[in-house]
Each structure stands twice: as C-alpha cells, then as structure tokens.
Design a protein that fits this description.
InterPro entries: Ac_transferase_dom_sf, Acyl_transferase_dom, Acyl_Trfase/lysoPLipase, Malonyl_CoA-ACP_transAc_FabD, Malonyl_transacylase_ACP-bd, Mitochondrial_malonyltrans. This is Malonyl-CoA:ACP transacylase (MAT) domain-containing protein. The chain is built from 14 helices and ten strands. It is an alpha/beta fold. It has a domain of about 190 residues: Malonyl-Coenzyme A Acyl Carrier Protein, domain 2. Strands 1-10-9-2-3-8 form a six-stranded parallel sheet, with helices on both faces. A four-stranded antiparallel sheet has the order 5-6-4-7. A hairpin with a 2-residue loop joins strand 5 and strand 6. The longest helix is centred in the first third of the chain and has 26 residues.
C-alpha cells in the first residue's frame, strides 16, 4: 500500500529484449490415492451377502479416506518449500509519475502495455509516464498500472545479460496486497490478461466500496504491533461500532497501517503521541482497505474469480492472508476474495522466507517500498530493485 513510500533502496538498471510468456505451471506431483473399489472376486457363495455388506462398508470408508486425503494434499504441494531466491512485487502506493518510462525501449515490456491498452480501453503507459498524479493515484488506475509495470520489470530483467538465469533461479514469490496478483501471474497461476482483468475489477470494486462508506487509513510510525493494537483499542473506545479501526497492514517493525472509519482514524491520530508513536501519516487512499469496509467488493471478486481459470502455480506464492503458499485453485480463489477484507501479513511472510533460508530477493516494479521493508526486517538481507 502507500504506507512505505518514504523508504528507499537501490534501483537496478534495465535494458531491452525478449517477450512475455506466461510460465506454464508445473503439474503437482502425483498424490497417493486410496483405491475406491473393493473386489469381491473369489468370495464363496454362502457368505456372499455378508461379504457384500462388508465390502460396501470398506468402500465407503476407503472413499472417505481418499477424499479427505486428496483435500488435504491438493493444497499442500508446497508445504515443505525451501526458498533461496524470491521475486517480490509491490502494491498500491508504489506508483509515481514517470514509472514505465523505459518500457518503450524494451519490446516485450512495450507489448505488455499494448495488451493492457486493449483490455483497459485507455493508454496506460501514457498515464504512467505523464500523469497527472491525481489520475495515476486513483485506485482504479494505480492497481492496473502497478501490475503491468511490475511484470514489465520482469521482462526488463529478462533482457539483461544473465537476467534469464536469475528468473530461472526464482523458487518463491509473493506480493504486497495487489502484488499478490502479480506474483500469481509470474508463477503461471493465470495469464497476464486474466490477471489484469481481475486487477481492473478489484480496483473498481474497492473504489466502489470506499465510496459507499467514508473511511480512511493512516500509518503509525515508531511502535511495535502490540502497541499499535493497544492504540486501536483505545481509539475504538471513543467511537461507534461503524467507525472502529484495526491494523490493516503488518508491514515491518515500526510501521503498521491502520484502517477504519474516519472518526476512528482521527482518534488514532489524536492518541498516537500518548502511546509514544513517533508520528502518524494519513494515507492518500480511497478508503479503509483490508477491513470490513471492503466487504461489498468481495462478492464481485468471487464472481470474477469463479469465471477465471486458475492453475497450480509452478512455484510457491505466499498469501497475504495467512503467510502460506497454496496450490489448490479453489483455495487460491477463496484467498484472493478474502484478501481485500483481511489484514496483510507482509512482515510475517518475509520473516518466514528468511527463517526458511532465503538468500536473494528482487523487488520488481515501481518504487522502493519492498526493499525498505526488507531492510527494516533484516538489515543484512540482500535485495535488488528492477523497474522500467
């Protein structure tokens, strides 16, 4: 989100070439299936009825075991993943006028923007490069802009000498809020085009939800998550149920975004100093993202996701909702619909990757938000920025 725009890291330089290809997903490894039939061959006639009853009970039992085993294993393909190299994709708030300025010189990146123009019905690259800022910052435009610019950055990296080898080495990916869609597209869960259509609808649905009920977000700087939670509780004691606030983005130590009703956010801002917060920053977003205020967007997303083909990703994609990778298409759809009303567990996701052995990471897309967060979590963790 817009929370970390103050943070910075080095931006990698990019050049030209190659074409975007949605990676073909690797089929999940074969699952152990329990046989659902029970042969009666060789059963003696005098005991046939009893044997049939026994066989049927066995069949039902075996079927139950098989179904429950399949349900458990179909979403656990990546349960034991061991990350070494990660691609990390930014979310809303990373946008800035001028982003995408190098895309025209990279044929594959330019092709993505051309496809986007057909789907969106306007010149996305022109808005990215020339603004105006107010237009680019709007939810309905910034989300598609960041999605396309981030995947264009992948193509920019591919065009560099040694870039394809880096891409091939990536064995885990994730994205901050909106960036989760980018990560799923990179991992081959859905096509670039289908992902962009989902992101377009997501931005429109979130904007509509924000318009339906006044709400806001602010970043609380200088407190740990427990103290921010206590600050929210104190603010909630002074406002009605409809105005209550909660932590919406768990970003990194000392920086957590709070979402809720306007009066609730004002109460947080008024009380922050008494909780020893260094400062609060009101975020320039449409409304209280990742809270119940976004509930009207859920049904719209569910309908669109139901019509979208989603495959098992070829590499683990870490969810913002629970910090885990998912391999079952139905579960991924549920997670994406739930994501707009659930807190973003970004800090937890990055810490888990590091704890599991992550060695290298790349931020692909506009801004330096992700690199700033990573350095706050682990100063020694290497991360490189790639943008267009």
């Amino acid at each position: 989100m817009a929370t970390m725009t103050m943070m910075a890291a080095t931006v990698g330089k990019v050049s030209s070439r190659s074409s975007f290809q949605s990676p073909s997903p690797v089929l999940p490894r074969s699952f152990l299936h329990v046989r659902l039939s029970h042969s009666l061959e060789g059963i003696k006639v005098p005991r046939l009825r009893q044997s049939i009853r026994t066989a049927r009970r066995c069949e039902v039992t075996r079927m139950s075991v098989s179904l429950s085993t399949d349900a458990a294993t179909s979403d656990s393909v990546f349960a034991e993943y061991k990350p070494s190299t990660a691609f990390l994709f930014p979310g809303q708030g990373a946008q800035a006028v001028g982003m995408g300025k190098d895309a025209a010189s990279i044929p594959a990146a330019a092709a993505l923007f051309a496809k986007a123009n057909e789907i969106l019905g306007y010149d996305l690259l022109d808005v990215c490069v020339n603004g105006p800022k107010e237009k680019l910052d709007s939810t309905v435009i910034s989300q598609p802009a960041i999605y396309v610019a981030s995947l264009a950055a992948v193509e920019a990296l591919r065009a560099q000498e040694g870039g394809q080898a880096i891409i091939d080495s990536v064995d885990v990916t994730c994205g901050l809020s909106l960036g989760e869609y980018t990560a799923l597209a990179f991992a081959g869960a859905f096509s670039f085009e289908d992902g962009l259509k989902l992101v377009k609808l997501r931005g429109e649905a979130m904007q509509a939800a924000a318009d339906a009920a006044p709400s806001a977000m602010c970043s609380v700087i200088g407190l740990d998550s427990d103290k921010v939670a206590a600050l929210c509780e104190a603010a909630n004691e002074e406002v009605s149920e409809e105005e209550k606030v909660q932590i919406a983005n768990f970003l990194c130590p000392g920086n957590y975004a709070v979402s809720g009703g306007v009066k609730g956010i004002e109460a947080v801002e008024a009380k922050a100093k008494s909780f020893k917060a260094r400062m609060t920053v009101r975020l320039a977003v449409a409304g209280a993202f990742h809270t119940r205020f976004m509930s009207p967007a859920v049904s719209k997303l569910e309908s669109a996701l139901a019509e979208t083909e989603i495959k098992t990703p070829r590499i683990p994609v870490i969810s913002n909702v629970d910090g885990e990778p998912h391999s079952d298409a139905a579960v991924i759809k549920q997670i994406l619909a739930k994501q707009v009303t659930s807190p973003v567990l970004w800090e937890n996701s990055l810490k888990t990757l590091l704890d599991r052995g992550l060695q290298n990471s790349y931020e692909l897309g506009p801004g330096k938000v992700i690199a700033g967060i990573m350095k706050r979590i682990n100063k020694t963790a290497p991360i490189e920025n790639i943008s267009v």
